[in-house]
């Protein structure tokens, strides 16, 4: 009996990895890290360095310091409308599409009839790329052959939904929100399914109504989902590109920072240094929102 106990104690000790195990772990960890450094951090650091230079992609690279940023903020008219549209995009997805997705998730979580059908229908736009959503928006909101003008009967004086710079940004935001809402709905629906029913029962016994139960009991337990949804919303809003490029190449009221990056780097101008400066601004704004949001969420988690 003492010998058996001694053997079990020895078995519970830390396992020693063989050279083969270490080689396998090194390969499994090394390849993803190498790909991440090559495809993500390498281009990111290169863009930051090129943002302080003047380069057309062919000739010599000339150091210009902060001249690109000075020109960007003071002498480049499309920049501020594009920055405003990106912030408007973020606000619309964050304060309209995301709460609406949460509302749909709450309604479906109650077990309404045909909930599976509603989930599939509402989630279907998520499988489409934003470029496809842009083409669908053209079919619906086109001035001369669009479905919307045909339905409302504006044949003599049709509304130019996509050509009017005062209207097209809102139309595109609706199309983008159509896709974003389904994504948010599925995330929150998964979170609601994991909420302990005993918490709701305890709140009901304490006299809380449905509204109080949701905001004071259910929603705080969805904090991990809130973090995921918040980060995804920021990323979706600030990296938006393909939907506006599919409609009118991101011009005439649909300017975005991502479109300006593309126009300067691979367009006729070939101003890689200047385009990199716009990309760095977009990166800084993205990291600023994401880091601030994550810090606030982590602080709230610690207070709990």
Describe this structure in a few short sentences.
With about 300 residues, the chain is mostly helical. About 70% of the residues lie in helices and about 0% in strands.
Outline the structure in words.
72% of the residues lie in helices and 1% in strands. The protein has 304 residues and is mainly alpha-helical. The protein has a two-stranded antiparallel ribbon with strand order 1-2. Helix 2 (19-50) crosses helix 14 (272-303), helix 9 packs antiparallel against helix 10 and helix 11 runs antiparallel to helix 14 (272-303). It is globular and about 75 Å long. The two termini are 48 Å apart.
Shape, per Cα inertia axes: globular
Question: What's the alpha carbon Rg, rounded to whole Å?
Answer: 26 Å
Compressed to H and E, one letter per element, the order equals: HHEEHHHHHHHHHHHH
Strand order of the largest sheet: 1-2
Q: What is the percentage of strand-forming residues? A: under 5%
Taking the sheet with the most strands, its summary is: 2 strands, antiparallel
Count of beta strands? 2
Q: Helical proportion?
A: over 70%
The assigned structural class equals: mainly alpha
What is the average of the pLDDT values? 84
**Terminal Cα separation, in Å?**
48 Å
- Counting DSSP H or I runs of 4 or more residues, the number of helices is 14
Low-confidence stretches: none
Outline the secondary-structure elements.
Layout (H helix, E strand, L loop, with lengths): L1 H10 L7 H32 L2 E2 L7 E2 L3 H8 L4 H31 L5 H9 L6 H12 L5 H6 L15 H26 L3 H9 L4 H12 L1 H16 L3 H7 L8 H9 L6 H32 L1
Antiparallel strand pairs: 1-2
Helix pairs in contact: 2-14, 4-8, 4-11, 6-8, 6-12, 8-11, 9-10, 11-14, 13-14
């Amino acid at each position: 009996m003492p010998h058996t106990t001694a053997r079990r104690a020895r078995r519970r000790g830390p396992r020693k990895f063989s050279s083969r195990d270490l080689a396998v772990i090194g390969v499994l960890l090394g390849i993803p890290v190498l790909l991440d450094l090559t495809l993500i951090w390498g281009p990111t650091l290169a863009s930051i360095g090129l943002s302080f230079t003047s380069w057309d992609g062919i000739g010599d690279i000339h150091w210009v310091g902060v001249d690109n940023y000075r020109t960007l903020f003071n002498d480049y008219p499309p920049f501020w409308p594009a920055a405003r549209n990106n912030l408007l995009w973020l606000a619309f997805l964050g304060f309209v599409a995301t709460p609406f997705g949460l509302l749909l998730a709450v309604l479906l979580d109650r077990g309404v009839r045909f909930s599976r059908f509603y989930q599939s229908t509402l989630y279907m736009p998520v499988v489409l790329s934003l470029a496809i959503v842009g083409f669908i928006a053209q079919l619906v909101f086109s001035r001369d052959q669009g479905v919307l003008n045909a339905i409302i009967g504006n044949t003599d004086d049709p509304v130019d939904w996509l050509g009017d710079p005062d209207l097209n940004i809102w139309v595109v935001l609706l199309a983008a929100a159509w896709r974003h809402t389904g994504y948010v709905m599925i995330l929150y629906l998964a979170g609601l399914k994991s909420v302990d029913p005993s918490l709701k029962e305890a709140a009901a016994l304490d006299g809380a109504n449905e509204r109080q139960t949701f905001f004071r009991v259910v929603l705080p337990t969805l904090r991990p989902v809130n973090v995921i949804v918040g980060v995804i919303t920021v990323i979706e809003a600030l990296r938006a590109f393909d939907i506006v490029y599919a409609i009118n190449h991101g011009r005439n009221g649909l300017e975005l920072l991502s479109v300006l990056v593309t126009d300067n780097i691979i367009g006729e101008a070939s101003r890689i240094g200047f385009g990199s400066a716009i990309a760095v601004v977009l990166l800084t704004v993205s990291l600023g929102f994401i880091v601030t949001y994550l810090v606030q969420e982590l602080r709230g988690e610690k207070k709990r």
